[in-house]
Recover the amino acids of this structure.
């Protein structure tokens, strides 16, 4: 799977006129990124992680979990991304628009694919830190680990295997068993 990057002057409005071809389009720093559909393992890990986040966050009324494709627009910029999973807290639900999330989500999750790993670990990490995302998880389904960055006044980075805490701000509201998320024996 490969990702095409173009540096030709393109606007988000140009992207909206493109045919729906099954690819995901993102516009970061004036550049268009096209990502083909992910592999089956990616889907399985994504679905399990979404379910776990819903149990911890949505079921307890903390906010809403979304999954790709959903557009995130950062107001005042041309940056548009489609994270694999994102969470918006109840307190910040006003950023949920009809067609997109209009502002920085509380949590953004990207699941690595060969075609996106470099971008997820580089340009998107820096984008999310600059644009006000509170927490960013990079999920590696090959290594069965999650790298979590917390941005803000006291930024931190931690790597998790086994389980990962789920936090709203400084408050820990639950945990996710990563053995279940990455389990290969659940794959059919």
């Amino acid at each position: 799977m490969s990702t095409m990057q173009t540096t030709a002057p393109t606007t988000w409005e140009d992207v909206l006129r493109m045919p729906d071809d099954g690819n995901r389009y993102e516009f970061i720093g004036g550049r268009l990124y096209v990502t083909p559909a992910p592999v089956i393992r990616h889907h399985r890990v994504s679905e399990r992680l979404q379910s776990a986040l819903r149990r911890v966050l949505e079921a307890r009324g903390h906010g809403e979990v979304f999954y790709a494709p959903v557009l995130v627009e950062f107001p005042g910029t041309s940056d548009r991304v489609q994270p694999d999973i994102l969470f918006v807290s109840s307190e910040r639900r006003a950023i949920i628009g009809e067609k997109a999330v209009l502002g920085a989500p509380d949590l953004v999750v990207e699941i690595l694919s060969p075609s996106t790993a470099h971008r997820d670990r580089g340009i998107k990490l820096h984008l999310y830190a600059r644009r006000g995302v509170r927490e960013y998880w990079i999920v590696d389904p090959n290594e069965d680990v999650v790298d979590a960055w917390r941005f803000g006044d006291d930024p931190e980075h931690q790597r998790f295997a086994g389980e990962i805490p789920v936090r709203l701000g400084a408050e820990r509201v639950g945990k996710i068993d990563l053995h279940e998320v990455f389990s290969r024996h659940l794959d059919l």
Observations:
- The two ends are 22 Å apart (CA to CA).
- The first strand starts at residue 4 and ends at 6.
